[in-house]
Amino acid sequence: MDADDRKFIVAPMINRRAGWVSAVNCYRAVESIRREYLGGQEDTDAARKRSWVQLREIAGVEASEMFWLKGLADPRRHGGSVDLSRTDRERALRLARCAVERHCRWLHAGGDQGAPAVA
Predict the structure, then answer these.
(1) Using an 8 Å Cβ cutoff, are 116 and 107 in contact?
(2) What's the CA gap between 28 and 96, in Å, rounded?
(3) What are 27-47's pLDDT values in tens digits?
(4) Torsion of CA 7, 11, 17, 20, to 10 degrees
(5) Containing structural domain, residue 31
(6) Is position 118 within any domain?
């Protein structure tokens, strides 16, 4: 067996691993940003719900998209396995990038000081 043969055997394992890593990391990035919207409150159910709403409004992302991302990440976060398509990995990365980018714009515009949200 030469290096090319090994590459074809290992590549699918790497791609499967990349799928769950992508989904988990994307969700963790979004969830970490969501904590910025707690406003110093404990991360209780009510405050958590408000922070998700505020993040979605600022990021311009539908609740269904966030639930979709959470659904991709949850199995692996709880010890299961995930096999994602390239399309789903790209969608997850785009969603997380959008949330991060718009959160940063909001901060830059003074959003954390009560300024209007920037979409």
Answers:
(1) no
(2) 9
(3) 999 999 999 899 889 999 999
(4) 160
(5) 3-113
(6) no
Around Cβ 45, how many Cβ atoms within 10 Å? 7
pTM: 0.72
Chain-wide mean pLDDT for the chain? 78
The whole-angstrom separation of Cα 50 and Cα 79 is 28
d(CA 99, CA 34): 9
Q: Is residue 19 part of a domain?
A: yes
Number of structural domains in the chain: 1
**What amino acid is encoded at 37 in this protein?**
Y
Residue 8: inside a domain, yes or no? yes
d(CA 59, CA 63): 11
